[in-house]
């Protein structure tokens, strides 16, 4: 248990119906005795856990406000420590005065995320579950909330723990064999070891493979609009955006910057970029835009490649087809309101995952595009309860672990001794325990909780 007792206003710093001042630590009740007088006269320190009392918050014998005090006794509280919450009227000044009184009575101001950090340190939740707390707070859709809740309920922890257990089993067999060679312990069969490690590797591959899904749920699908000048990229961007955000003209090279908007399209959230395309240009400013477009293209989850349906594919279009190989692309044959060249859709369908005919100007084909995006990124057999990683930190740990398991399999194949393999596998298990937070450095913990809000 931590020595200091911390306090913060846990509700937003704004006027509202109620404000809550939260106190956690060994001296919580003692502090509450000083700052809160219950109507019945009973001291907060005499109250049982999970009970509350109506009364007055008092500073130097002067009443600041009336409110309700709730007591949680260790370990049955959010942090696992003694916790007191004072609910008062939701004013900025009044809640700050109560907090100041609590601090004067012996508490220290809590840092961002410190309540949840203590909950983690006291074993109330795993690191992945603690991270999900913040995701619940920032969730802005049903899908995001469900995803965050599944992790908070331990889906990621259970999945990763399952893999660690399997590794521990392998390591156990290796250790027994290494430590007691004279006993009757059967030598570890390389074939059995190999197949066990491959199983671990497959499972890690699946975890990593669905890793992007978590980011997409939280941040949206990053989608970049690409195509040669005047095919209608900015018109499409404005259509998806629901307003004229990007400038549209029939002059090639109008869009020189990269314009970004976060939009909702049916069930999908997109972080959508309109670009100048990726052609070579003499215009210095446009060239900067083109460079940014290239970089966005590298990182994008989805490319909306626009082609002018009234013209045959140009050399520039052909080059683009080449550059987009291996990416997730929806080809858009635009200007359907005019007569569209025959065979274009067929040709592009052969090149890309999906091809849609549209008129960005008249909004035709929008439904089909929406469905295609939903289908590509949100349907399928991924369900949150599987335990899908939710951030870069977790993904990095999983990737490092997989690399090490791969290395161990290679080492086994070339006949390196089992002691060396044990060391490599220990490293892999360590990475996974880093992920769950079972064995994690203070630096990482600091980093995770610094992203929290104060009072959480
Ligand atoms: P960008 O250079 O690819 O961004 O293209 P713009 O969106 O600026 O459009 C270039 C020209 O094509 C403008 O004159 C638009 O009005 C026109 N345009 C864009 N989409 C359509 C469409 O669906 N149908 C027709 N007929 N014209 C379009
Ligand atoms: Mg444009």
Provide structural commentary.
This protein is α/β, with parallel strands linked by helices. The chain folds into 3 domains: about 5-110, Probable tRNA modification gtpase trme, domain 1 (Gyrase A, domain 2, 2-Layer Sandwich); about 130-210 and about 390-450, tRNA modification GTPase MnmE domain 2 (Four Helix Bundle (Hemerythrin (Met), subunit A), Up-down Bundle), CATH 1.20.120; about 225-375, P-loop containing nucleotide triphosphate hydrolases (Rossmann fold). It has helices at about 30-35, 90-105, 115-120, 125-140, 140-150, 155-180, 190-210, 210-220, 235-240, 285-300, 315-325, 345-350, 365-375, 390-415, 420-435, 440-450, and strands spanning about 5-10, 20-25, 35-40, 50-60, 60-70, 85-90, 110, 220-225, 260-265, 270-275, 300-310, 330-335, 355. The chain has a 7-stranded mixed β-sheet with strand order 3-4-5-6-2-1-7, covered by helices on one side. Strands 9-10-8-11-12-13 form a 6-stranded mixed β-sheet, sandwiched between helices. Guanosine-5'-diphosphate (GDP) binds next to helix 9.
How is this structure best summarized?
The chain has 16 helices and 13 strands. It has 456 residues and is of the alpha/beta class. It is flat and about 85 Å long.
């Amino acid at each position: 248990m931590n020595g200091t007792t911390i306090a913060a206003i846990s509700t937003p710093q704004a006027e509202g119906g109620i404000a809550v001042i939260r106190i956690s630590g060994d001296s919580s009740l003692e502090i509450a005795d000083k700052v809160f007088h219950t109507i019945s006269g009973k001291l907060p320190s005499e109250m049982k856990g999970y009970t509350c009392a109506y009364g007055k918050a008092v500073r130097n014998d002067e009443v600041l406000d009336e409110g309700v005090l709730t007591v949680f006794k260790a370990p049955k509280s959010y942090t696992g420590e003694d916790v007191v919450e004072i609910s008062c009227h939701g004013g900025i000044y009044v809640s700050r005065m109560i907090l100041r009184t609590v601090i004067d009575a012996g508490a220290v101001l809590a840092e961002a995320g410190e309540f949840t950090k203590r909950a983690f340190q006291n074993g109330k939740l795993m690191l992945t579950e603690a991270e999900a707390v913040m995701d619940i707070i920032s969730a802005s859709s049903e899908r995001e909330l469900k995803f965050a809740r599944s992790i908070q309920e331990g889906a990621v922890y259970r999945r990763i723990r399952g893999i660690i257990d399997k590794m521990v089993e392998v390591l156990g067999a290796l250790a027994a064999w290494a430590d007691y060679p004279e006993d009757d312990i059967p030598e570890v069969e390389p074939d059995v070891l190999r197949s066990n490690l491959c199983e671990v590797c497959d499972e890690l591959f699946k975890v990593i493979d669905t890793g992007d899904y978590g980011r997409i749920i939280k941040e949206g699908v990053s989608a970049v609009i690409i195509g040669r000048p005047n095919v209608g990229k900015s018109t499409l961007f404005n259509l998806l955006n629901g307003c004229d955000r990007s400038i549209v003209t029939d002059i090639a090279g109008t869009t020189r910057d990269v314009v970004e908007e976060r939009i909702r399209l049916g069930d999908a959230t997109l972080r959508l970029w309109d670009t100048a395309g990726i052609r070579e240009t003499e215009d210095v400013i446009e060239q900067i835009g083109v460079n940014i477009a290239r970089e966005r293209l590298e990182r994008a989850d989805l490319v909306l490649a626009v082609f002018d349906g009234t013209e045959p594919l140009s050399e520039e279009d052909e080059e683009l087809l080449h550059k987009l190989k291996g990416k997730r692309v929806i080809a858009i044959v635009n200007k359907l309101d005019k007569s569209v060249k025959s065979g274009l859709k067929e040709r592009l369908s052969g090149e890309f995952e999906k091809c849609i005919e549209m008129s960005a100007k008249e909004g035709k084909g929008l439904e089909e595009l929406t469905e295609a995006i939903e289908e590509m990124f949100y349907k399928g057999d991924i369900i949150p309860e599987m335990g899908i990683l939710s951030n870069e930190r977790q993904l990095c740990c999983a990737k490092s672990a997989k690399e090490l398991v791969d290395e161990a399999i290679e080492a086994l194949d070339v006949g390196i001794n089992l002691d060396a393999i044990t060391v490599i596998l220990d490293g892999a298990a360590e990475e996974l325990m880093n992920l769950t937070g079972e064995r994690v450095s203070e630096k990482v913990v600091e980093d995770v909780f610094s992203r929290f809000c104060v009072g959480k």
